[in-house]
Amino acid sequence: MTSGDLQNLYQELILDHSRTPHGFGLRDEIAAQSHQVNPTCGDEVTLQVHRADDGSIEAIAWEGHGCAISQASASLLAELAEGLSVDDLEVRIAAFREAMRSRGKIEPDEELLGDAAALGGVSKYVARVKCAMLAWVAAEDALHKSA
Amino acid sequence: MSTSSVTAPATPLSDDEVRLLRADFPILSSEVQGHPLAYLDSGATSQRPLAVLDAERGFATTFNSAVHRGAHTLAAEATELFEDSRSTVARFIGADDDEIVWTSNATEAINLVAYSLSNASLGRGGAAAEPLRLRAGDEIVTTEMEHHANLIPWQELAFRTGATLRVIPLDDDGALRLDTLSEHITDRAKIVAVTHVSNVLGVINPVDQIVARAREVGALVLLDACQSAPHLPLDVRALDVDFAVLSGHKMLGPTGVGALYGRRELLEIMPPFLTGGSMITTVTTTEAEYLPPPQRFEAGTQRVSQAIALAAAVDYLTAVGMPRIAAHEAQLGARLLEGLRAIDGVRVLGADIDLPRIGLASFDVTGIHSHDVGQFLDDRGIAVRVGHHCAQPLHRRLGVTSSTRASTYLYTTEAEVDAVIDGVAQAIDFFGVHA
Questions:
Q1: Is B140 in the same domain as B257?
Q2: Is the pLDDT of residue B2 over 60?
Q3: Which of A39, A108, A126, B184 is the most buried (most CB within 10 A)?
Q4: Rounded CA gap, B371 and A41, in Å?
Q5: Is residue B433 very low, low, confident or very high in pLDDT (cuts 50, 70, 90)?
């Protein structure tokens, strides 16, 4: 009954991440932080980028509430970011944004984005792109603030 | 209890009548995601019948020209059609012609009133406008139930004038706390702005009780009729409100046109909001004198073809009959409410409020965000609204960030309502909330 597009949008991997999210829970320690709101639905995310001594991303920690797409996307971003350099994360954020805005024309690069490539189905649903981008925009903003 | 005439006995539309009506709305026979469209988002924007489209096109191909200026034949005919449209809308809500001001939408209509009071507070409008002036210590009253359009203009008016904004709270079910009316509407109140029908809960508020309290203290009343004018017989004089606002695109009309009803004695003393051409009598380089209402409030080129199309929409609604439309939607609304409430894990907002309602329900599904519910329904061709519906304070009061809203209209069928109910049950299975 449900279409292939919808099955693809809500893959088991995505639903799993939305139910048991990775990196959920802010830390007390000081870190670059960003709060982003999706004004159309009131969904929000607060995200911290924690850096290791060598400057690489130690962890992304976040809290928020929203739809399955926005929650899974934040979780997948947190999983992807661990151990990356700032430059590498920025390259991935740019690649993710390009795929999301492609209206289904660009398949996310799985080698670059790992499991987050599963969010590729979102790009066919223009109204949902903001949901998927919310945490990634927060991460980008946090990095700019700490630059 | 309520002054609404929704309880007046009227025969609901028959299945055959609805089928015939639907033929007037081409979009209703379209397909979405490979399914026949089930349009349950009329509370946001209603669909337009051919008669409305024909009226707009007919004007453009026959009479298009500037109104209230120029002496040629087309200009005269366009002006007459434009003013006839005003009469049509006036009659529809029980007002006189010169008490209807065209606006772009209901939001602009509310801002018109707020800015006019603001300008009066600055001394514009002279001594005649004295009763409209707001000062520190005066109070503006609204409610926790409002659409942002009937909240933020009053917040801003309070900031500009130093007046205090008072907010009538909701109870745990989402109903207006009428027991607090005398506490919140005091003798310092200058204006009370309240919605007739909640765009989230669908309940028809007991406007008479609010008006009665406002009259006791000499406050003006502005009624947000966006969700009542399209769905219920509306009589602004019977309701005894001072202002009412409506939006064309929610009542089978086009976007870009709305209307403000204002009691004549008030419009006459109100200073203008938007200024410029078409609203003046004499202009010098330093000052100007203004036309009487409604032209005083209609600066610049007017939305002529939209107004004419809105009048066609009103004619369409009147021909079907507002009492019958209300009866049809009350039936659909009851079916929707009952069906959704019966699903485990679905909470219909305001379901326990003991008031009559229009055919609209907003609901929260435990464990599934409204965006995901809406996406699932869209996959079946069902269009609903998701999000906060421009009513964040109401959602916050009821402990949710967002909800899914299904809203019916005269062209909605029982089968479409059932499709929503079935779709929500299937969504719960799909997202594995009960897995």
A1: yes
A2: no
A3: A108
A4: 8
A5: low
- pLDDT number for residue B119: 98
Residue pLDDT, tens place only, B277-304: 999 999 999 999 999 999 999 999 999 9
Among residues A138, A136, A103, A137, the alpha carbon closest in space to that of A120 is found at A103
Residue showing tokens 């929707």 = B336
CA B154 to each of CA A61, B108, B235: distance values in angstroms, whole numbers, following the listed order: 39, 13, 25
**Residue-wise pLDDT tens digits, B38-75:** 999 999 999 999 999 999 999 999 999 989 887 899 99
Of A15, A42, A65, the CB nearest to B431: A15
Q: Are residues B301 and B280 in the same domain?
A: yes
What residues pair up with B32 in beta bridges, in sequence order?
B35
Chain B residues touching residue A5 (CB < 8 angstroms)? 379
Amino acid at B308: I
Contact B371 A15 (CB under 8 A): no
Residue B435 lies in a domain: no
DSSP 8-state code for residue B432: T
Return the structure tokens found at B170: 């909701």
- Rounded CA-CA distance B387/B340 in Å is 18
3-state secondary structure of B373: helix
Quick one: three-class SS letters along chain A?
CCCHHHHHHCCHHHHHHHHCCCCECCCCCCCEEEEEEECCCCEEEEEEEEECCCCCEEEEEEEEECCHHHHHHHHHHHHHHCCCCHHHHHHHHHHHHHHHCCCCCCCCCHHHHHHHHHHHHHHHCHHHHHHHHHHHHHHHHHHHHHC
A23 CB within 8 Å of a chain B CB:
no
Q: Which domains does chain A have, with CATH numbers?
A: 4-146 (3.90.1010.10)
Domain that holds residue B398: 5-48+321-430
- Sheet containing B258-262: give its strands across: B100-103, B258-262, B243-247, B220-224, B189-195, B139-143, B164-168
Per-residue pLDDT tens over the stretch A33-45: 999 998 877 789 9
| Chain A residues closer than 8 Å to B380 by CB | 1
In this complex, is the C-beta atom of B397 within 8 Å of any C-beta atom belonging to chain A? Answer: no
Q: B37, B44, B167, B390: which is the annotated catalytic residue? A: B390
Q: Is A69 within 8 Å of B371 when comparing Cβ atoms?
A: yes
Contact B385, B373 (CB under 8 A): no
Number of domains in chain B: 2
Chain B residues with CB under 8 Å of A9 CB are: 375
Please name which of B207, B184, B208 lies closest in space to residue B196, comparing C-alpha atoms.
Answer: B207
B390 among known catalytic residues: yes
Nearest to B32 by CA among B315, B366, B427, B416: B416
Q: Is B282 exposed, middle or buried (0-12, 13-18, 19+ CB in 10 A)?
A: exposed
In whole angstroms, what is the distance from residue B165 CA to residue B154 CA?
7
Model-wide pTM > 0.90: yes
- Tell whether A13 lies on the interface with B, counting CB pairs under 8 A: no
Q: What ipTM is given for this predicted complex?
A: 0.90
Domain ends where: B275, B299, B318?
B318
